[in-house]
Specification:
With 196 residues, the chain is α+β, with helices and mostly antiparallel strands. It is built from 6 helices and 4 strands.
């Protein structure tokens, strides 16, 4: 009989502990459910913003200026505000376009040297990146002409490399057509730079 009161006391202690555990588990489950609901709300709301922006973009593509000429997609891209919320618009998002490796002879200084260079362009929009990939031979020609006009001493210092990057940027921004608009190249990045 002495054991029965001990069991009753143990059961009485276990009941409050299990209720605390139950309350704690319920609190965690409710917190997770509330967080999941909030995440679902925000994720479901984003596509609506994209659809509204897409409709505005379609209207901008077909708009005409005061002279009756159609406004190009590029000018409509400049006017479209960027979406805040962490997701960039594909038409204005920065995209990287790599070139194949360049290997060129540099001007004698006093010895003959060559440059092996990998570079990448940073452009605005995936659509422009695809257009530039299609025009890669013309762009490579511009880069080659500029690189072969350099001496090793001109481009071996950090300042010389920065100057070369700026000159390449100016060259790559030039329009591809005679009366075209400048290309939206924002940066020229060196990914490999070897002079031998």
């Amino acid at each position: 009989m002495a054991q029965e009161p001990a069991k009753a006391a143990g059961a009485a202690e276990a009941a409050p502990k299990s209720k605390k555990k139950l309350i704690l588990i319920l609190a965690v489950v409710l917190t997770l459910a509330a967080g999941g609901g909030a995440a679902a709300f925000f994720l479901m709301k984003k596509p609506e913003a994209h659809q509204a922006k897409g409709k505005a973009g379609d209207k901008a593509e077909h708009a005409e200026d005061a002279e009756g000429e159609a406004i190009s997609e590029e000018s409509a891209e400049e006017e479209a505000p960027e979406e805040s919320g962490g997701h960039a618009d594909p038409k204005t998002a920065l995209t990287y376009v790599p070139f194949e490796t360049f290997t060129v002879n540099l001007l004698p200084d006093p010895d003959d040297k060559f440059l092996q260079l990998d570079l990448t362009m940073e452009v605005k929009g995936a659509e422009l990146a695809e257009k530039m990939k299609a025009q890669m031979p013309a762009l490579r020609n511009r880069v080659l002409l500029l690189l072969t006009s350099k001496k090793a001493s001109d481009i071996s210092t950090p300042e010389g490399k920065a100057q070369l990057s700026q000159e390449l940027l100016v060259e790559l921004k030039k329009p591809l057509a005679a009366h075209g608009k400048p290309l939206k190249v924002t940066q020229v990045l060196f990914t490999s730079f070897v002079i031998q």
